[in-house]
Amino acid sequence: MSTRKRVLALVSQGRSLNSVSKETGISRAALRSWRTSTEPRRRTGRPCCRCLDEPSHPERPASYAYLLGFYLGDGHISAHRRGVHFLRIVCDNAWPGLIDACEAAIRDVMPHNSVCRVKKQGCVAVTGSSKHWPCLFPQHGPGKKHDRPIVLEPWQQEIVDAHPWEFIRGLIHSDGCRITNWTTRLIGGERKRYEYPRYFFTNKSDDIRKLFTDALDRVGIEWTTLTRNGTPINISVARKASVALMDVHVGPKH
Question: Fewer beta carbons under 10 A from the terminal one: N or C of the chain?
Answer without folding.
Answer: N
